[in-house]
Amino acid sequence: MLYQTCRQLITRSALAAWKSGAALHMPRKSLGTRQFSMGIDGYALVTGAGSGIGKACALAYAREGAAGVAFSDINVEAAIEAAKESERVAKNPRYRSLVIETDVSDQESVDRMIDLVVQTFPRLDYAVNSAGVGVETPAEVSEASIREFERFLKVNVTGTLLAVRAQSRVMKRQEPLNHGTDSLRTLGRGVITNMGSGNSYVATPHIVQYTASKHAVLGITRNAALDNAPYGIRVNCLCPSWVKGPMIDRAIAGNPSLADAIKRAVPMGRIAQPDEISDVVMFLSSPRSSYVTGAGWIVDGGATLQMHT
Ligand SMILES: NC(=O)c1ccc[n+]([C@@H]2O[C@H](COP(=O)([O-])OP(=O)(O)OC[C@H]3O[C@@H](n4cnc5c(N)ncnc54)[C@H](O)[C@@H]3O)[C@@H](O)[C@H]2O)c1
């Protein structure tokens, strides 16, 4: 049994040494990626899975070995395309994808989304709430558009709360999932990751609607983490700065100087790739982060470190 489990990890000479009873010192280069596996083998739900960060997270679950991923998005065509892509990259032979047309700002739509997940998958182990809207009307606070502010509250704030609420209800009802022999390092009843922003901590001129909504997402995360901790459900908030994808492409199209401004604002001098966000989400979804809850996890190339003078 041990041999079966380890055979893909160890070299032929190391295997011979193990069979002969010698101590097994595995050379560093013999460690396959499975050695560092995140232990992702359950069922995931991702909102905003049709594009950008949500799509990267949903595909990452499939690649890591999830048994099923639900692709939820208001743009159902985009979600279908992403789900098809996941079928091509999925590692788990039992893998199933599910597409759900959802408006996260609508309670009935979110409840229907959760019902479909529960009817299709035996469990809900990981949830990522990435559905969100981008700024359409940047303006100083004195000129802020209340219509746009309310759109951000509806989608980014109420949408996140509705999703977290429904996901928490499902996770609370299920048994904890155990990994390995260490009973403390388990997945628990589930993990929820909300998509915050560097703007969950700091402000950017002319986008009060975005800053307020992302501060609220961090607040929802912290309260949900506190309320869910007794049930073994972890809730964290991923806080990126700028990430390559359609949302930022649209912002740059509307303001071409933004591309250079991003390079100047990020100490690492470049925009993040979506995989650099989804990799951290995989860690936060894994028993490897079993003691991390209520965190605002900044992934910003150092953007929020500095004060501009
Ligand atoms: N891209 C960045 O630089 C960046 C940086 C920090 C935080 N974020 C946050 O990450 C999240 C995802 O951003 P992205 O860059 O992937 O954007 P994106 O525009 O590529 O994807 C957002 C997805 O959400 C979906 N969506 C929008 N409104 C919805 C609704 N009402 N119901 C369901 N789905 C809806 C869209 O159809 C789209 O597929 C957002 O919350 C965003 O604020 C993005």
TrEMBL record:
SUPFAM superfamilies: NAD(P)-binding Rossmann-fold domains
Gene3D superfamilies in the cross-refs: NAD(P)-binding Rossmann-like Domain (3.40.50.720)
InterPro entries xref list: NAD(P)-bd_dom_sf, Sc_DH/Rdtase_CS, SDR_fam
Highest taxon of source: Eukaryota
Keyword terms, alphabetized: NADP, Oxidoreductase
Record protein name field: Short-chain dehydrogenase/reductase SDR
Record flagged with keyword Oxidoreductase: yes
Family in the record: Belongs to the short-chain dehydrogenases/reductases (SDR) family.
Protein's organism: Discina gigas
PROSITE patterns to which the protein is assigned, alphabetical: ADH_SHORT (PS00061)
Pfam families (UniProt xref): adh_short_C2
